[in-house]
Amino acid sequence: MSFIELRGVTRRFTKGEHTVTPLADVDLDIERNEFFVLLGPSGSGKTTLLNLLAGIDRPQAGTVSVDGFDVAKGSSGRLARWRARTVGYVFQRASLVPVLTAYENVEVPLWLQRLSRDERHTRVSIALEAVGLADRASHLPKQLSGGQEQRVAIARAIVADPDLVVADEPTGSLDAESAEGILSLLRRLREERGKTIVMVTHDPHAASYGTRIMRLDKGQLHETQGQEVAS
Ligand SMILES: Nc1ncnc2c1ncn2[C@@H]1O[C@H](COP(=O)(O)OP(=O)(O)OP(=O)(O)O)[C@@H](O)[C@H]1O
């Protein structure tokens, strides 16, 4: 069984008389420790697919399983606990809480867990260290660059040590140099910490960091060969 398995997944949205079907009977397998990249035109359903993997959304038909857990079926309480343990989500914008320091922002996901202050401290320190920001722990978001803010957001995503990190256009609002730093960091999380990464991007260069690239278009996933990525 693959780490991530989608079988016959259909997700459609209806607004008034208008229906869109970003995912139509989709099958997908992602193995543990892949850096899987999803390309596709705007509105093709890339975020929809990430939300299904992360247990934020459910399909109308089909099954989504992550590490043997049936994401489409769990009750919302069980799903929330599973998600807190298993999935770290990185968004295009870091969305840090402006009145909390970098340290406190990273600590937020641990508030829901029964951990001592010392355990929380150890985990936050490891996460900040992993993203190279141990020396910025007491800074507020406004005292950080955009790239550093995104590093804090990645630290927040990995602080509970999830096996899966999903990233939705994580470099979309960054300059080229900061983007490179974030992509190398995601690659290191896979290589050195065994994470499985699923990343959505529009950018062919960012996509080249992936170990596998697929394109989503008109409800279907397509294999992508190297030279196609740039088109
Ligand atoms: N909650 C929702 N209600 C109604 N329609 C939705 C909802 N979420 C997504 N959609 C529609 O589903 C389609 C896919 O959206 P999605 O955000 O997954 O695309 P995307 O590929 O991530 O786009 P982008 O690259 O622009 O971020 C779009 O047509 C969108 O309008």
Describe the overall structure.
- This protein is of the alpha/beta class.
- It has a single domain (4-229), classed as Rossmann fold (3-Layer(aba) Sandwich).
- Helices cover 34% and strands 27% of the residues.
- The protein is built from 8 helices and 10 strands.
- The protein has a 6-stranded mixed β-sheet, with helices on both faces. A 4-stranded antiparallel β-sheet has the order 2-1-4-5, with helices on one face.
- The longest helix has 18 residues, at 176-193.
- Adenosine-5'-triphosphate is lined by residues 13, 15, 20, 22, 40, 42-48.
- Keywords: ATP-binding, Nucleotide-binding, Transport.
- InterPro entries: AAA+_ATPase, ABC_transporter-like_ATP-bd, ABC_transpr_LolD-like, MacB-like_ATP-bd, P-loop_NTPase.
- This is ABC transporter ATP-binding protein YtrE.
* Proportion of beta-strand residues: 25-35%
Query: From the alpha-carbon coordinates, what is the Rg to the nearest angstrom?
Result: 18 Å
**What proportion of the residues is helical, as a percent range?**
25-40%
CATH superfamily: P-loop containing nucleotide triphosphate hydrolases
What's the CATH topology name?
Answer: Rossmann fold
| Uncertain ranges | none
Annotation, overall tally of beta strands: 10
Count of all domains: 1
Largest beta-sheet characterization: 6 strands, mixed
What is the CATH class designation? Answer: Alpha Beta
User: Structural class, from secondary structure content?
Assistant: alpha/beta
Termini Cα gap: 33 Å
Give the number of helices.
8
Bound molecules: adenosine-5'-triphosphate
The strands making up the biggest β-sheet line up spatially as: 6-7-8-3-9-10
Question: Which series of helices and strands comes N to C?
Answer: EEEHEEHEHHHEHEHEEH
CATH architecture: 3-Layer(aba) Sandwich
